Amino acid sequence: SQTIHQWPATLVQPVGSPLSLECTVEGTSNPNLYWYRQAAGRGLQLLFYSVGIGQISSEVPQNLSASRPQDRQFILSSKKLLLSDSGFYLCAWSRGRGINEQFFGPGTRLTVL
Amino acid sequence: GDSVTQMEGPVTLSEEAFLTINCTYTATGYPSLFWYVQYPGEGLQLLLKATKADDKGSNKGFEATYRKETTSFHLEKGSVQVSDSAVYFCAGGDNFNKFYFGSGTKLNVKP
Q1: Considering only CA atoms, which of A109, A63, A58, A52 is closest in space to residue A86?
Q2: Does B6 touch chain A (CB under 8 A)?
Q3: How do residues B87-107 score in pLDDT, each as one tens digit?
Q4: Residue A104 with chain B: CB contacts under 8 Å
Q5: pLDDT > 80? residue A105
Q6: What burial class does residue A108 get, using C-beta atoms within 10 Å of its C-beta: 0-12 exposed, 13-18 middle, 19+ buried?
Q7: B105 phi and psi, to 5 degrees?
Q8: To the nearest whole angstrom, how far is the Cα of A44 from the nearest Cα of chain B?
Q9: Which chain B residue is nearest to residue A48, measuring alpha carbons?
Q10: How far is residue A20's CA from residue A52's CA, in Å, rounded to a whole number?
Q11: Which residues are bridge partners to B92 per DSSP?
C-alpha cells in the first residue's frame, strides 16, 4: 500500500530564516506531487505541483520554491521566511494518468515569529 | 477558471440529524468531483468521489450525486454522529490532475 510522509510535523521559525519541508511517498512510482498551504480556518491554496523529477510548476508567485530531486521526494523551501508564510503545509500525491484522487500527508504546522 | 463553491459554515447539528452540505462547480469541461474530510490537526482524507454525471459516490454513510444539470455535488448523510465533526471540502479535478478546492465547511455534531 502507498503511504506519504511529511516532516517535520511542527516548526517554529523566526522571520528571515530559511525553510525546508520534506515529503516522501512510498509504494508507488512516478506519482504527481503537490504542495498546498492552508491558512487558519481557510481552504487550500495550491503552491506547486510536479509530474516528474525536476519538473515543477508554480501556481502562486512568492518567496517559496519547490524541488523534486527524486521520483518520490518533494521539497518545499524558502531562503527567507515571512510572517505571512505561517500556515499548515500539506503534501499530496496522485497517480500520474487521468483524473485521480489526491492522497494527503499529515501536514506540517509552520509558525513564523 | 474552474472552481467549486460550498456552503459556509459552521454547521451545527444534533446527533442523528440529517446532513446536507451544498457544493456547486463551475468548469469548462467535465471534472471529477470529490469530497474530502479533515479532522483537527490532520491532513485531508478522501471521503468519496464521482467521475461522471449521475454517478453516486458513497462511503461511511455519506453520499453525493454528480448532477450535471444543476452543476452540483451535495454531500448528504442520513444520521450524523459526534465522530463526524470535522471540516469537509468539496473539490474538482481537471485533466491535468490539478484540483480546485472549496473553502471548507466545518461540521459540529452535538450529543
Answers
A1: A109
A2: no
A3: 999 999 876 677 889 999 999
A4: 36, 43-45
A5: yes
A6: buried
A7: -130, 120
A8: 6
A9: B98
A10: 20
A11: B33, B100
pLDDT digit string, tens, across residues A23-67: 999 999 999 999 999 987 778 889 999 999 999 998 886 889 999
Find out whether B21 and B75 touch, Cβ atoms under 8 Å.
yes
User: Which helix H or strand E contains A40, and what residues bound it?
Assistant: none
Q: Which residues of B touch A42 (CB under 8 A)?
A: 103-104
Closest partner residue to B42 (CB to CB) among A49, A103, A107 is A107
Cβ neighbours of A36 (radius 10 Å): 25
CB-based contact A23:A75 (threshold 8 Å): yes
The rounded distance, in Å, linking the Cα atoms of B4 and B89 is 10
**A107: chain B residues, CB-CB within 8 Å:** 41-43
A105 and B CB contact within 8 Å = yes
Looking up cell 506547486 gives A48
